[in-house]
Amino acid sequence: MMDWTDRHCRYLHRILSARTLLYTEMVTSPALVRGGALHLLKFDPSEHPVALQLGGSDPVELARAATLGAEAGYDEINLNCGCPSDRVQSGTFGAVLMKHPELVADCVAAMRAAVDVEVTVKCRIGVDEQEPREVLPDFLERIAAAGCERVTIHARKAWLQGLSPKENRDIPPLDYELVHEMKAAFPQLHLSINGGVQSLDEAEAHLARGLDGVMIGRSAYHTPWDVLAEADARIYGSERETVSPDDAVAAMVPYIERHIATGGRLHQVTRHMLGLFAGRPGARKWRQVLSEKASRDGAGTEVLDEALGRMREAA
Description:
Keywords: Flavoprotein, FMN, NADP, Nucleotide-binding, Oxidoreductase, RNA-binding, tRNA processing, tRNA-binding. InterPro entries: Aldolase_TIM (IPR013785), DUS-like_FMN-bd (IPR035587), DUS_fam (IPR001269), DusA (IPR004653), tRNA_hU_synthase_CS (IPR018517). Its cofactor is FMN. Catalyzes the synthesis of 5,6-dihydrouridine (D), a modified base found in the D-loop of most tRNAs, via the reduction of the C5-C6 double bond in target uridines. Specifically modifies U20 and U20a in tRNAs. The chain folds into 2 domains: about 5-230, TIM Barrel (Alpha-Beta Barrel); about 245-315, Up-down Bundle (Four Helix Bundle (Hemerythrin (Met), subunit A)). It is globular. It contains 15 helices and 8 strands. The longest helix is centred in the last third of the chain and has 17 residues, at about 245-260. Strands 1, 2, 3, 4, 5, 6, 7 and 8 form an 8-stranded parallel β-sheet that branches. Helix 2 links the parallel strand 2 and strand 3. By secondary structure, the protein is an alpha/beta fold.
């Protein structure tokens, strides 16, 4: 979800759901520790609970990056061992770490020793020619011994050569059963499943079978209201009133105005709002107006008003 789940996206998602755990896009430990890019840690207090997702493979550097994240106020520090991007492979980040479980365990141990907040891991079921039913239990056993108690498993193998990151999200077959088997084998671990889950119905089915959590990425981004608006009631049993798409737009206006007042641009926020009315009459006009006008110089919240009006006319 790099370049997607930035702080503006997370602010919108938190309006829709007060209870779901939000994750940052992956931030590399070198960027924080060597590059001093502390602006990447900024988030709005309303985003809690929110987890910082780190990429890296140096235990010392990751411990320092985790410390910076904890000091910034994140509720969880997550080590990404699942991203198949060439950019992260070259730095020995992401899914390539599935080949080095002992190093991941060292990273987890160093991060846990450095911070009081929970350290978690997101991984694949395996990479390349690995046999998932052999490597995944060993991987989980090693990181659990290092003190990791929460793991999110993307239920696909990653092919680091020959498939693009996009293809790695679609082509390798999903193996949900293996993830459920891992929950039975490691009952002490809080295990969440990721990959291909597109709705709350699907999430509830996995939870009903005994998994502890479900991570939804692209569907929550492209159809945020459909996935998030009823999550508090259906998953957490909350009595919080469901926020309508129109109410979500209204709640975003003060945030957008503050962003613009500090030098930001409208499209930096509204690009995350394109799918808010997905599947509803007039949604195409909503997307069209935002896409065409939000990036113009001087564009302000009047563009939202126009988009809503055009959508209603088309409905």
